[in-house]
Amino acid sequence: MFIHEFPDDATVYTTIDEPIEPNNQCQFEDFLHTLHPANLPPYRLTLKKNCPVILLRNLNPTEGLCNGTRLICHDFKSHVISATVSSGDFKNKYVFIPKIPLLASQDEKLPVPFKRTQFPIRLCFAMTINKAQGQTLDFVGIYLREPDFSHGQLYVALSRAKCSDNGKILIRPPTTEDTDDHSTYNVVYDEIIRKIFS
Q1: Please, what sign has the CA dihedral across residues 84, 85, 90, 96?
Q2: Dihedral, CA of residue 91, residue 164, residue 158 and residue 160, to nearest 10
Q3: β-pairing, 52-55 with 11-14?
Q4: Where in this chain does the record put each DNA helicase Pif1-like 2B domain (predicted)?
């Protein structure tokens, strides 16, 4: 894991997981620690100074603390983390992230509905194309193990960089040795283009 490459000692935060139904409190506590819903922080959150994280909830949108905001961690206390916003209109703004109770999305098919009390962040060394949409980055590295799968995704990914020279794409190498094709598909639906220009 990349976090071990950072200098300094790690700070580890474990969650308080509680079933929504109080009758299930003792029965499921250890089991809840093993669940990893996509919109919740992990049970065991390991952080180091200057590590990049992504915010998982809207805490204060007017001050730049929105779901998807990327932050750089600086100081760790038991109930608050200090950080700076790493990109966008609020870049370099010093912020405090509190530990809060979080519920998994109703879209998640969880065997036991539960509440997790933790900092609403995850480590963020990479992000999906969808999560990057709307952000402007100094440098963009795109890993396309498979070609993009919907109209405009490659454009969205490449246009995140401030300058076209600051974007790099890593694609799967050709499968046969005799081919020299180092390209990927750009999915474009002709129907959409025709409607735009008709």
Answers
A1: negative
A2: 10
A3: unpaired
A4: 30-73
What is the CB neighbour count within 10 angstroms for residue 86? 20
Structure tokens at 8: 């300094």
Relative to beta strand 114-118, strand 100-103 is antiparallel
Phi-psi region of 92 (alpha: psi -120 to 50; beta: other; left: phi over 0): left
pLDDT tens across the length of the chain (198 residues): 688 888 889 999 999 888 877 776 666 777 888 887 778 899 999 999 999 999 999 999 999 999 989 999 999 999 999 999 998 889 999 999 999 999 877 666 777 778 889 999 999 887 777 777 777 777 888 887 777 667 777 778 778 888 888 888 887 766 666 565 667 766 666 776 677 776
Q: What are phi and psi of 156, to 5 degrees?
A: -60, -45
pTM to 2 decimal places: 0.73
Nearest to 69 by CA among 166, 152, 136, 158: 136
